[in-house]
Amino acid sequence: xxxxxxxxxxxxxxxxxxxxxxxxxxxxxxxxxxxLSHAEAVKLLGERAMxxxxxxxxxxxxxxxxxxxxxxxxxxxxxxxxxxxxxxxFFGGAVCxxxxxxxxxxxxxxxxxxxxxxxxxxxxxxxxATIALFVxxxxxxxxxxxxxxxxxxxxxxxxxxxxxxxxx
Length: 168
Fold this sequence. Notes:
64% of the residues lie in helices and 2% in strands. The protein is an all-alpha fold and 168 residues long. Among the domains are: 83-112; 118-167. It has a two-stranded antiparallel sheet with strand order 1-2. A hairpin with a 6-residue loop joins strand 1 and strand 2. Helix 4 packs parallel to helix 6 (146-157). The chain is elongated, with a radius of gyration of 25 Å. The protein starts with a strand and ends with a helix. Residues 1-8 have low confidence and may be disordered. It is found in: Cell membrane. Its main location: membrane. It comes from Cupriavidus pauculus. It is a multi-pass membrane protein. The chain crosses the membrane at residues 60-78, 90-109, 116-140, 146-167.
């Protein structure tokens, strides 16, 4: 299919057009994309959106550690089996905090030259480290209580949103 450049109409008169990729815009024309100026971005997004965020990965990891400790203490005080529940909660939070801390450290080390590939690699390492730590906790801690571990893991994991809302 060939698109008429001025009209945007589809012309199927050419039999060779049925083999052309309709998503391949580069084959027909190259379009120049101009970035927004600062004034245009402010007009479009507002002045507040243009300010840099005060939230840092280090603050998120610190908040995750605090949530982990508070949850572990709460499970240790209020659970029926206090010791195993408290430790299970602590290990569940650690499964979240340790990979997040490593990822934040990688971001800090690469702050001079950040790349998309570095972010993707860091996130992949974070995911595999989380899985590995879950396996280590399940295998090594015999008194594991699943509910405190998973609840604390999820609380620590979602702490990012609480920090984002509080800081922004």
